[in-house]
């Protein structure tokens, strides 16, 4: 149960406001039972996301002071560019304000209507940016990656046979690129092995299709490779990362994760013609190519963060802290996705609340209860986020997984916070019969989970709703 203690000490603290249950009840009701609408300073432990929530180091804060805010050719850009080239190995480095802008620039440049982009599992912004080009995003993760009970060291792997079939059917004319997301966020933060990346590369080469990484959590992925893949334990994280990216032609990156910054991202690639077209678009919508929607100081923070994230003491603690939370829950019988991924523990809401059917949003019921009872913010990754009406049949389609994500910000919470979370979830599990399903009272036409409003069902409505769906 032990894991390495924090490899840092605390120099600046951010006080947390403790809000009592009565006020939390009022706040979550006013929020329409939607955790996105609860003010963050009314939350004790905020596990909504690991994105943009990292604590920067003293070196990064010092880096902000040497920000060069020149419009063109800032020294911080050159530091950032050389860092990205050294770790990722791609020639053209295009800064963006966050990951989805890198995706938008890439897809609006290289996709045409009717194209297809395979991935292990597309993250929602990636899928949305592909669909925005009237193209199709297909998920080809190995079957094990879709079953929350199967133990597999690399559940994020992309199935090379499924990929071969898709590329064989569509050909490179319809598939401008293949992507691999490391780690596979939508599949539980599960890693992808080097062997799998090599196999995917081989299929891509055979079909003449470029391979890109969605590299948000690349260092965490490399840590798993070092820990789990035969022959990798003696290599440095940098060596593993360089080999991993050498099989690709480029990457999109949200530096809000493994860049250890609060804002920032980039696109890096080898194709000069794509890079030129993307840069022209960047100037139109984001900024000059040496700042890309960021301040010089942000580029400096990213350059430093991208190196710090390769530190093995840091990664050992980081992954250890997430695993520790998973172990505490697992030992108490709480159903979670196993093995535990790199940045988050996912509760399996179907098994947690077997009495609440998917059309009644069991994941959201857990999220609301965690806030109301304990002041913890988690996020639903299930039917509220993904269920949709099939335009052909008119029937509701529900996602296979109904999860609640407890994402751990980097270097922010102590082990005592983690224990508090574990004890709270375990207490809720013991009381699970008391939780009820919900119904939506308002929803937006796209990405409804951000702004939806819900209400709780009573006992008789529960039966009625089940019959109706
Ligand atoms: C997250 F609910 N992730 O996991 P950007 N690729 C991948 C990501 O995980 C990712 C992006 C691209 C977030 C933030 C988030 O609807 C949501 O810098 C694998 O956020 O643009 C982001 O990077 C996009 C959560 C984003 C959401 C959108 O919490």
Structural account:
Helix 4 packs across helix 10 (272-285). Helix 7 links the parallel strand 5 (178-181) and strand 6. The strands form six sheets. This protein has a five-stranded mixed β-sheet with strand order 2-8-7-6-5, sandwiched between helices. Strands 9-14-11 form a three-stranded antiparallel β-sheet. It starts with 20 loop residues before the first helix and ends with a helix. Helix content is 41%, strand content 13%. The model is unreliable at 463-469 (pLDDT under 50). It has helices at residues 21-30, 58-65, 75-88, 99-110, 124-131, 160-170, 194-207, 218-228, 237-246, 272-285, 296-308, 312-331, 349-352, 362-374, 383-386, 415-430, 459-468, and strands spanning 45-46, 92-96, 116-119, 136-139, 178-181, 211-214, 250-254, 265-269, 344-348, 376-377, 379-381, 388-389, 396-397, 403-407, 438-442, 453-456. The longest helix is centred in the C-terminal third of the chain and has 20 residues, at 312-331. By secondary structure, it is of the alpha/beta class.
Report a brief summary of the structure:
The chain is built from 17 helices and 16 strands.
Q: What is the overall silhouette? A: globular
Low-pLDDT residue intervals, each spanning 5 or more residues:
463-469
Q: Give the strand tally.
A: 16
**Proportion in β-strands:** 5-15%
> Averaged pLDDT, please?
95
Quick one: biggest sheet? 5 strands, mixed
Ends apart, CA distance between termini: 43 Å
Tell me the radius of gyration: 22 Å
Helix content range of the residues, please?
A: 40-55%
Helix/strand-derived class? alpha/beta
| Spatial ordering of strands, largest sheet | 2-8-7-6-5
What compounds are bound to the protein? ligand P61
How many H/I helical runs? 17
């Amino acid at each position: 149960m032990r894991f390495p203690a924090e490899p840092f000490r605390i120099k600046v603290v951010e006080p947390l406001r403790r809000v009592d249950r009565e006020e939390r009840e009022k706040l979550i009701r006013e929020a329409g039972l939607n955790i996105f609408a609860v003010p963050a300073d009314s939350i004790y432990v905020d596990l909504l996301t690991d994105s943009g929530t990292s604590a920067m180091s003293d070196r990064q804060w010092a880096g902000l002071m040497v920000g060069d805010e020149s419009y063109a050719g800032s020294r911080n850009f050159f530091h950032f560019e050389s860092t990205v080239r050294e770790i990722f190995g791609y020639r053209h480095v295009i800064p963006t304000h966050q990951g989805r802008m890198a995706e938008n620039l890439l897809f609006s440049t290289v996709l045409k209507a009717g194209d297809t982009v395979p991935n292990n599992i597309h993250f929602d912004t990636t899928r949305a940016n592909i669909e925005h080009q009237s193209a199709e995003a297909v998920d080809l993760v190995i079957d094990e990656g879709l079953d929350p009970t199967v133990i597999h060291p690399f559940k994020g792997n992309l199935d090379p046979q499924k990929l071969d079939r898709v590329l064989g059917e569509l050909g490179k004319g319809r598939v401008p690129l293949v992507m691999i997301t490391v780690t596979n966020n939508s599949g539980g933060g599960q890693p992808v092995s080097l062997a799998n990346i090599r196999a995917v590369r081989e299929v891509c080469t055979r079909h003449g299709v470029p391979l890109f990484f969605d590299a948000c959590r690349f260092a965490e992925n490399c840590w798993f490779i070092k820990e789990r893949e035969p022959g990798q334990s003696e290599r440095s994280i940098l060596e593993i990362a360089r080999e991993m990216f050498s099989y690709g032609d480029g990457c999109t990156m949200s530096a809000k994760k493994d860049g250890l910054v609060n804002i920032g991202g980039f696109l890096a690639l080898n194709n000069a013609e794509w890079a030129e077209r993307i840069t022209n678009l960047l100037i139109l919508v984001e900024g000059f190519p040496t700042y890309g929607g960021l301040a010089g100081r942000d580029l400096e923070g990213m350059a430093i963060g991208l190196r710090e994230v390769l530190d093995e003491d840091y990664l050992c603690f980081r992954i250890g802290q997430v695993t520790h939370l998973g172990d505490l829950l697992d030992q108490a019988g709480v159903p979670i996705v196993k093995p535990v991924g790199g940045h988050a523990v996912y509760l399996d809401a179907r098994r947690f609340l077997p009495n609440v059917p998917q059309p009644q949003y069991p994941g959201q019921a857990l999220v609301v209860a965690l806030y109301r009872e304990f002041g913890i913010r988690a996020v639903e990754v299930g039917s509220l986020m993904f269920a949709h009406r099939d335009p052909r049949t008119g029937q509701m389609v529900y996602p296979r997984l109904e999860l609640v994500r407890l994402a751990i910000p980097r270097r922010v919470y102590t082990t005592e916070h983690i224990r508090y979370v574990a004890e709270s979830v375990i207490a809720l599990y013991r009381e699970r019969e008391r939780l009820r399903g919900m119904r939506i009272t308002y929803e937006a036409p796209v990405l409804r989970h951000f702004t939806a409003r819900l209400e709780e069902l009573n006992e008789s409505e529960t039966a009625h709703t089940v019959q109706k769906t």
